[in-house]
Every structure is written in C-alpha cells, then in structure tokens.
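Listing S7. Sequence submitted for prediction.
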Amino acid sequence: MSIFNYLIEQSIKPKGHIGRIMLKIMNTAHKRIFIFGIENINFLDGYKLLDVGFGGGMALKLFTKKNKHIKLYGIDFSEEALKTGSKNNKKDIECGKITLLQADIEKIPFPDYHFDIITAFQTHYYWQDLDNKMKEIYRVLNRNGQFIIVAEKYKINYHMEKYKTENELKQLFIEIGFKQIEYKETKVNMLIKGLK
C-alpha cells in the first residue's frame, strides 16, 4: 500500500498514533468548513443534533459556542475518533451536553424520529452505498428535521464516482424523501440541506 493510500485510509478510519495526528490535523484544517456549515444551519433551543462522523470533535465544540441550549450527539466508527473527540469535548460530555458513541452509520443506535438536525462534515464522500446510508439518516430524523452535508468540492470530485454535481445531489435527496432542498457553494465548499 502506498503512503498516499495509507493516509486516505487513516482519514476514513483513524487508528493509533498516526490516526491521532490525522484527527488533530483535521480539527485544524477543517475549522473553516465547520464554521461555514454552522453559519448556514438554523436551530432552536432544545433541538437534538447528531453529527455523523464527528472525527476529532471540532464541529461539536463549535456548535456549543453557537447555542448552549441544544443537545449534541456524535457517532463515528473509529475508536480513535471516539477517544480524541471525547478528550476535546470533555467538559460538555461531563455535564451531559454532548454524547459521543462509536457506531456505524449503517445502523444508527437511535430510534426513529429522534433528531431535529443531522450533520455530515467532510465525510459523506467516503461512504460506500451513500443512498442506503442516507435512508438510515432519514429514519432517525424528526418530521421537518434537517439533514446537512458540508464538504470541500475537490474531495467530492476526487473520491466520488456519482453524486458529484448539484443536480445529482438534489436528485438523491428527493429520492430519499427530502423536500425543500437547498444548495449553496463557495469557491471551495458546498452545502446541501434537505428538510424531511
């Protein structure tokens, strides 16, 4: 395996010492995209928000700064992400504001209609079988809940064979059952939001 492929593997599922370094880099390198996404998400006090693939936990930390009255959850299938994300959000976990779990998006460990908002920052382009994973997200999303994907456009173009364009992404959201789909982009980033 080439060093490049090894680093991509570590980006997908960080492990060990290199994984910890990757998570630290991601927290720093992705901060602007987290901010871009959070600025475009509307949420009210009391909402329950799930961040899928929380990595090093930086997006959750930024969410707490924007609204202190929402309950935050995160799932990631990497044990290293769980350790790092827990360390980076220790105070908010201890006071019950944030709950982090090691779990796979294929089987989200929450009941139907549980979350008001679900976010996926810099992660959906790694998901194999994207449409089925989105169906699972749809299942745990409240009626009138929002699902938001935020990513750098060049990573979508590099990692994905389909669902690369605005029209393809919107069509996928429609097929899953989302309505009122909104797409926004900058020179570097894109955001798509669907209302259930």
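Caption to Listing S7: primary sequence and predicted structure tokens for the chain studied. Residues 3-195 form a domain with the Rossmann fold fold (CATH 3.40.50.150). The chain has nine helices and seven strands.
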